[in-house]
Structure formats: C-alpha cells, structure tokens
Design goal:
This protein is of the alpha+beta class and about 350 residues long. The protein folds into two domains: about 5-90; about 105-340, Bira Bifunctional Protein, Domain 2 (BirA Bifunctional Protein, domain 2), CATH 3.30.930.10. The protein is about 40% helix and about 20% strand. The chain has twelve helices and ten strands. Strand 7 and strand 8 (about 270-275) form a beta hairpin. It starts with a helix and ends in a 15-residue tail after the last helix. It binds 3,4-dihydroxyphenylalanine. 3,4-dihydroxyphenylalanine (DAH) binds near residues 214 and 310.
Length: about 350
C-alpha cells in the first residue's frame, strides 16, 4: 500500500467514526489545517524532483479533495443528526388542553360586569366616586335634612374628624355618585355607578360592607315611563328569562315620586326561581330625581328631569346564582370561590350569553 493509501484509509476511518461536529473539525485540522499532515506533505513538493512532483502532485491533490469531500458528507450527516436531536427535545404537544386558570372571578365581580354589559348596551357609561364621603354628598345634597330620621336608618360608620373639620363617613349608598356626576357633567347624563357601600349591620342577609349599583338618567322630557322601560328590560336580560315586575310606591328623600320594584318568584325545593310565581320580592329602589337634588347640583329642575335607581349587587348575585348566605361572599374561602367563581377567560356578553 502506498503512503497515500495509508493516509487515506487512516482519515477515512476517523471521519466515518466522528460522532460530533467538533470532533470532525479536529480531524480536518489534523489533516488539512495549516500544519496538518496532508498540507505538510504538499509543502514538501517543492523539494521534490520534477519526476516525483509529476506523480505526487496530482496524487496529493486528489487525496486532499477526497478527504475534503468525505468531511463535507460526514458534516451533513452530523448536522442532520444534531437537528433531529434538537427537534426531538423541543417538541410541543399541541393536543394538551389549555386548562382552567387557577383563579376565578368572584360572583360579585361577575354580576357587576353583567350589569355593565346590559346598561352599556342601553347607552349608559360607568361612573365612580370615593368610598370615604362627606356629609354633603352622602346626605345633604340628596335631600336628607339635618337631623332627619332617614339618616339614622342608614346605620352610618363615621370616621374620626380631623381638628376643625366635619366627620367623614363611609358612604352608606352609591347615590353620592349621582351628586358628583351632576356637579361635574352637563346633561344629558346616563350613568351607572357600581361600588362598595357600608352600614353597621350584620346577619344572614346583611354585611357591614356590601355592593350597590346606582343608575342616573338626566335629560329633557324624561318621565316615569322611561324608568319603567329601562328597569323592566334590565331584569329580564339579567335573569335571562321573562320576569314579571310591579312598581310599589315608596319613600326616598332624593326621589319624588319614589318606588320599589318587585319581581315575581317561586320557591322550588330550597331554590328560589325568579320570573314567574305567586310571590313578590323587592329588588331595587327608584324614582324621579327630586327637584331639590337637581338644584343642589346646579341643574335647573324646570329645564331637566331624570330618574334614578339603586340596587344591591350581592343580593342579585345570590338570587341569580343560588348562594344561601351573604356572609360567605366575603369570607375569602378558596373552596367557596372555586365552587361559585367564574372562568376569568369568559367575558359576559349579550350576544353569546351573560354567564
Ligand atoms: N340609595 C338607596 C339605598 O341605598 C337606593 C336607591 C333608591 C337609589 C332609589 C336610588 C333611588 O337612586 O332612586 O337604599
């Protein structure tokens, strides 16, 4: 075997058994690098006789080309192998389910969002006000005279007064947002105001903190018919069934006339079914905004009228989704939340269903 054949066999075996690209490159350097074995032999050509050169020149060139080709082929094989290995490691199983997010939407949040969806479809926007209110916004501007017994009925939480200042209160209802809106916007006004409210009261159907949604419409020529239409549409959409209602005369200082709206219901076993039945249940208060309230907010009652309403969100959530005790709503029990909570990825929507 000629020396060239020996070298060729040696490198061919090495190249074929190289297991990775790094090792293959080391072989290339040792054969064809500047100081590689074949390069050195080619460097020796200069010292050879013309006869020797004629034989060795083409033989060494052929060897170099063959080794180069072998290396390139092996390189392809090893690169494909490396890619296959990477792909096998980086696969994603697209058939895995997304799964349910760990947290859930609290039913109060869900119901507030459902209400916002229903009222925004009727052209209402959402307004907000502070939880800590002053006497003017919570009572006086809403036509509660000083010392009037209606103030006592609100079981107000009073804050400690700063020196020289009047005591602030935790708002007892969302109605002060009506006052803030009328004082900061010009009619026409069409808002709902969802939020937290506070009264010193606690039993199966009362908690010291609870939620209300207030509604207010102010425009020219607004009458009781608009009020009834809006609220009748609201309850049927909210309970996702035909709901029979009645309006009963009532008293609130900030509306005249005032009414409470009742819905028909029946008990089926331990559950309450809203819509039809022999019994009536009160679910909200409403009325035409009192001229004194309009005046206190800088609106001329001879030019503008309006209606307002207020309802308890927690109780509506209980009625719609069947929770037996109001206090559980705020006990932060994760088992209760997992059971009664809503998928945060599903948004309330009038076209595809509220819940
Ligand atoms: N603020 C009343 C309450 O907390 C609810 C209410 C009744 C709001 C009638 C209104 C209304 O806007 O017109 O009991």
């Amino acid at each position: 075997m000629s020396q060239i054949d020996i070298i060729k066999t040696h490198y061919t075996t090495q190249i074929e058994s190289a297991q990775d690209l790094k090792h293959l490159d080391e072989i290339r350097v040792s054969a064809l690098g500047k100081k590689g074995e074949i390069s050195k032999m080619m460097g020796g050509l200069g010292k050879m006789s013309i006869e020797e050169k004629k034989v060795m020149g083409p033989a060494l060139n052929g060897l170099k080309n063959e080794i180069n080709a072998l290396i390139e082929r092996r390189k392809d094989v090893l690169e494909n192998k490396a890619l296959d290995a990477a792909l096998a490691k980086e696969t994603m199983d697209m058939s895995l389910p997304v799964g349910r997010a760990a947290g859930t939407l609290h039913p109060v949040q869900q119901v507030m969002e459902e209400m916002a969806v229903i009222f925004s479809d009727m052209g209402f926007s959402v307004a907000e006000g502070p939880d800590i209110e002053d006497d003017f916004h919570n009572f006086t501007a809403l036509n509660f005279p000083k010392g009037h017994p209606a103030r006592d009925m609100h079981d107000t939480f009073f804050m400690t007064a700063l020196e020289g200042e009047e005591k602030k209160v935790l708002r007892t209802h969302t109605s002060p947002v009506q006052v803030r809106t009328m004082m900061s916007q010009k009619p026409p006004i069409r808002i709902i105001a969802p939020g937290r409210t506070y009264r010193c009261d606690s039993d199966q159907t009362h908690t010291p903190m609870f939620h209300q949604v207030e509604g207010l419409v102010i425009d020219k020529d607004i009458h009781m018919g608009h009020l009834k239409g809006v609220l009748m549409d609201f309850v049927s959409t909210f309970f996702e069934t035909d709901v029979d209602v009645q309006f009963r005369p009532h008293h609130f200082p900030f509306t005249e006339p005032s009414a409470e709206m009742d819905v028909r219901y029946e008990r089926v076993g331990s559950a309450i079914k809203i819509g039809q039945g022999e019994k009536w249940m009160e679910i909200l208060g409403c009325g035409m905004v009192h001229p004194n309230v309009l005046r206190a907010c800088g609106i001329d009652p001879d030019a503008y009228q309006g209606f307002a309403f207020g309802m308890g969100v927690d109780r509506l959530a209980m009625l719609k989704y069947g929770m037996p005790d109001l206090r559980d709503m705020f006990s932060a029990d994760t088992r209760w939340l997992a059971h009664y909570g809503f998928d945060p990825l599903l948004q309330a929507n009038l076209a595809t269903g509220l819940s």
